[in-house]
Structure formats: C-alpha cells, structure tokens
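Hey,
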Amino acid sequence: MRNLVEAINAVMMDELKEIMGNDFELLITTYLADSEKKIREIKTAFESKNFESLKVISHSLKGSSLNLGVIKLADTASQLEIQASVAPIENIQGLINLLEIEFDHAKKAIAHFV
C-alpha cells in the first residue's frame, strides 16, 4: 500500500481525532458516505454531459476533503473542477477514474485512524 502520507495528512487527521473525541468516527463515516455519493453524482453529471454540475460537485468534494486532510483526493477533485471547463472529454474521464482510485486509497488510509 502507498505511504499514508501520500493519501492523507496524518497530522491533521490526528488533530481532528483529538478535537472531535467520540464524534470523530461519525465525522469520518459521514465524510466517506458523502464522498461516495459525490463521486456517483460526478459520474452521472459526466455521463449526461452536465459539466456545470460536475464542476460544482467536484468543488464540494475538494472542500470537504481538504477539511479532513484528504490531500490527494482533494487535489484530484480540484483538477476535475478545472478541467470540466476546458478539457476534452477523454481527460475528464481519466480524472474521474483517478478520483475513484484516490478515494479507495483515502478509505484505506483513514481506516488506520478509526
């Protein structure tokens, strides 16, 4: 497995765990469920060629991921947000595929904190 630091900011995750206490697990569970939903919505927006919706959802995923220190997923969501305006469809599909991979890596990395 990749180094955890590549997928998430471990220091930030530890700080959140300390601050949130018993609510940390709920925060993580909510984030993971919401992120899965957003990724499905991104795929649906892409399939229906609704690039404005794709940008908005990508922006939201980027923000929630940054708030938790899920760096690589946030970076990929940011790239997708930008590319939805300018990139050929093939580039967007590749980023969506990468988004799913990064989400998988993030789930595995986060599991070490719960």
